[in-house]
Amino acid sequence: MARIKIEKNSSRKEVIVSKAASLFREKGFKAASMRDLAEAVGVEAASLYNHIKSKTELLHELCFGVANRFMQHMDEVESKKTSSIAKIEELVRFHINEMVNHYEEVYVSDREWKHLSDPYLSNFQNQRRMYRKRFAAIIETGIRNKEVKMIDAPTAVLIILHAISGIESWHRSTQKINAAELTNNMITILVGGLKNV
Amino acid sequence: MARIKIEKNSSRKEVIVSKAASLFREKGFKAASMRDLAEAVGVEAASLYNHIKSKTELLHELCFGVANRFMQHMDEVESKKTSSIAKIEELVRFHINEMVNHYEEVYVSDREWKHLSDPYLSNFQNQRRMYRKRFAAIIETGIRNKEVKMIDAPTAVLIILHAISGIESWHRSTQKINAAELTNNMITILVGGLKNV
DNA sequence: TTTCTTTGCTAACATTCGTTAGTATATTAT
DNA sequence: ATAATATACTAACGAATGTTAGCAAAGAAA
Description:
The structure is a homodimer.
Chain A: H1 12-27, H2 34-41, H3 55-79, H4 84-101, H5 103-112, H6 120-144, H7 153-165, H8 167-172, H9 179-190
Helix pairs in contact in A: 1-2, 1-3, 1-5, 3-4, 3-5, 3-6, 4-5, 4-6, 4-7, 4-9, 6-7
The first copy, chain A, binds a DNA duplex through loops.
């Protein structure tokens, strides 16, 4: 009888969620079937339901796992007493790092949240809106401080977040520059582009 | 008997493709059903097949329609005898314009091409790769000319293209700045950020 | 009007989907 | 060893999906 293999400190559910992340990333939430997932896990489809409640629950776990990490980091950054530019750079670095090291979950959370259903959907959208508002507020403070160019802060946030999500292409590309170099290039263009000179 | 209403110079198929664009954008290709589409068009699902061959054909039309427009524009830009920065700015402006005015199709082409199947899939991926290579080549020329900062050109392309796709958020946002202002802000950050000072 | 073509309808199909019921087999606790 | 629990299996369900066949009605051409 095929049993789901686990490493120490990880439940079988975590294994399933993790495999779900890479499957949802590859095929999209709707196109990925529970039978696909079962095969990836090495078990029959029905067996998955001993560990999870539903397919949608997998999406919840992924989306809110990621959202919570970002929210918590935002709390930390806001409470620091550094310059606005330093805060912006730290946020950007965190995003890049998450996108590089937790690619699949972050990507899924970013692209597949549409398939959540209420009340999770509204909740997620609110968190996302809130996060962007707080990011924009930091940029606006930077503008008032003359640290940052005079630009529309929400537009800057939008550019930064989407630009970073482009790391997806980097992951799939064959001739990858290394992660540190990628990070430096992105910081140069994104943060450097905001700085008042 | 409900008949698909057409405007002059447009076929019924074009009406269907257009409605498909907004439906695929809203729900995603897989989650949008032919019955949904039929309802949006004002007709029964089976009737659609008097005008189209399959659901996938709709995705073909959308993806390659967009891809061809971008490719043709790239041809035009390359053949001009202007500075690299001017070329880059023109490419960026075109992207923004397409994203603002043909939102649904561009968005679908960008996010749903995964659901194409070979040989269309490979074809599309190749076009995309090619386009980015040509974009990067222009940036590299700009670097050699000292017009552009010394950065990794493929990374710059990745940032620019994804940043622009962020206009999706602008479309969905409630407090929109106007399109011209958005364009200026994006040009400032994206093109301004590349310029050698 | 009569004929031909286009476009719509209803009904049904095979397939795939997420999920449940019921049962067998491992693992863990007593 | 025995009991209890966790985990897997097979089989099947109802619902939704893309699509086709066959037929009716509407519009265009004669």
